[in-house]
Amino acid sequence: xxxxxxxxxxxxxxxxxxxxxxxxxxxxxxxxxxxxxxxxxxxxxxxxxxxxxxxxxxxxxxxxxxxxxxxxxxxxxxxxxxxxxxxxxxxxxxxxxxxxxxxxxxxxxxxxxxxxxxxxxxxxxxxxxxxxxxxxxxxxxxxxxxxxxxxxxxxxxxxxxxxxxxxxxxxxxxxxxxxxxxxxxxxxxxxxxxxxxxxxxxxxxxxxxxxxxxxxxxxxxxxxxxxxxxxxxxxxxxxxxxxxxxxxxxxxxxxxxxxxxxxxxxxxxxxxxxxxxxxxxxxx
Length: 284
Known about the structure:
The chain is an alpha/beta fold. About 50% of the residues lie in helices and about 15% in strands. The chain has a single domain, classed as Rossmann fold (3-Layer(aba) Sandwich). The chain has helices at about 15-25, 40-45, 60-75, 95-125, 145-165, 205-210, 225-235, 250-265, 270-275, 280-284; strands at about 5, 30-35, 50-55, 80, 90, 130-135, 170-180, 190, 245. Helix 3 runs parallel beside helix 4 and helix 4 (about 95-125) packs parallel to helix 5 (about 145-165). The longest helix has 29 residues, at about 95-125. The radius of gyration is 21 Å and the shape is globular. Belongs to the short-chain dehydrogenases/reductases (SDR) family.
């Protein structure tokens, strides 16, 4: 039986690719975007299987209104994909207050508010699936991406906790961790902080030169169509995988980061145990 999906950020990137593939499979999509007219080319063939609304995910009141409207008009929504987001690049000192607040609002607060808006509906209908498009940047960290990483590490923690809260209601959660893919993430959708001369010769300056074409671009091995297909396949599975790491670069980066952290933790075992209270140490 065809399912109904609610997806944020569908005008480009993974959101657009997911919408195209799902409609081709005969499923129904509630597509939200700042510019829903970007899906005009899909509307003629999709008919009433494509439900579109304009949405700025940082507007919490509007987000709740759109979510409530989607459930009211479409009935059951089987899968919610939290996909809207963007990259902010620059040293922490280079970022403006407005850039900081917008990055947190879009990549961290908005997905949390989306969860708070959809969960009551999913509980009442007896379950469903939530897919959070995050990033391998929630497992690793690079210079000149501090605020971006803060949002991705933050949303990983939120969903790892919330997944356990929601499991008794039949709501499965999957955090998708793609590597660098051939989308507009590192191009048109990227935001760069205004440069400070002091950082010109460091990682922030190097990244800026890559975006300007003065240095080779960042490798982008990920195929958006294959990533979208893998996300859909994960929802086809009976059990929701908590994490879905996609891309050879994502796998290599996450593996190296986790091994490094585990090695550091194991080397500090004696120190960790030494800080227990004396009665605990005596009993061990």
